[in-house]
Write a structure and sequence with these properties.
ProC C-terminal domain-like fold; Rossmann fold; 14% strand; 2 domains; alpha/beta
């Protein structure tokens, strides 16, 4: 699938805006001439492809674009003075509601989304929600953009996006936290640090593909391992009984509160 529209990314020099642009180019869903990126400085970041337009003038970017992507930090949003009219606006900002975007930019067609850090390697799971004025053709553009950097998934309620800021947005870093804990324990047992890093990455990156390719639900996988009553089951039961689920829930709630504070 390709996109038959001009895309402008405000904040396109940043890591996420640059990742979205690079993914779209590498996947071939847009041509360089369809892309315009703006930033607060002349730094072009990772996207310096011939044909891609760079500017520091956000309103000029809006004028030449059919789709405007807001890839800026939430606390910077108030300083972005643009009038988008009836153009499609796609926001990747945490905590900024569709109503806030409409009031500040004049937008009538808004999509809120939650890409994560894996967009840089085209493996982001990206939930998105569209307001009622967003057309089927607009949704095709959104889905194509997010499939280019991994997998896009529409959700029916804007409140789901607020939750996904914590789960799918922040969650991309959770495997690294688990890997760090595995490494620390292995080193404490005398294993070389380099080996421990290699082993932890192998478990979380390679072996986790069993979950991706299997037909069972995640809870079924866990219960199957516990029912087998082997070493894996002993580890899972101990971690779960020790409050693993509660700690994950507490982390998600902390991310939700942070997103709400950023939006305010």
């Amino acid at each position: 699938m390709t996109i038959d529209a001009k895309i402008g990314i405000i904040g396109g020099n940043g890591w996420l805006g640059g990742a979205l642009a690079t993914a779209a180019l590498e996947a071939g869903v847009v041509a360089p001439e369809q892309l315009a990126l703006s930033g607060r400085t002349d730094k072009r970041g990772a996207v310096d492809t011939p044909g891609v337009q760079h500017t520091r003038d956000n309103q000029a970017l809006v004028a030449r674009s059919d789709v405007v992507v807001l890839s800026i930090r939430p606390e910077q949003f108030a300083d972005v003075a643009i009038d988008v009219g009836d153009k499609l606006v796609i926001s990747v900002m945490a905590g900024i509601t569709a109503q806030q975007i409409a009031e500040h930019t004049g937008a009538t067609k808004i999509v809120r989304s939650v890409p994560n850090a894996a967009a840089a390697i085209r493996h982001s799971f990206t939930p998105w929600h569209a307001t009622s004025n967003v057309t089927a053709a607009d949704k095709h553009i959104v889905q194509t953009m997010f499939d280019a950097c991994g997998q896009g998934a529409e959700v029916p309620d804007e409140g789901h996006i607020d939750y996904c800021v914590a789960m799918t947005g922040s969650g991309a870093a959770f495997p690294a936290l688990l890997a760090d804990a595995l490494v620390a324990n292995a080193v404490a047992h005398g294993l070389p640090h380099e080996f421990a890093e290699q082993a932890a990455k192998g478990v979380l990156v390679d072996a986790s593909q069993l979950l991706a390719q299997g037909q069972e639900g995640v809870a079924d996988v866990v219960q199957t391992m516990i029912d087998y009553q082997g070493t894996t089951g002993a580890a899972l039961e101990t971690m779960r009984d020790g409050g693993f689920n509660a700690l994950v829930a507490a982390g998600l709630e902390a991310a939700l509160r942070k997103a709400s504070d950023m939006g305010a």
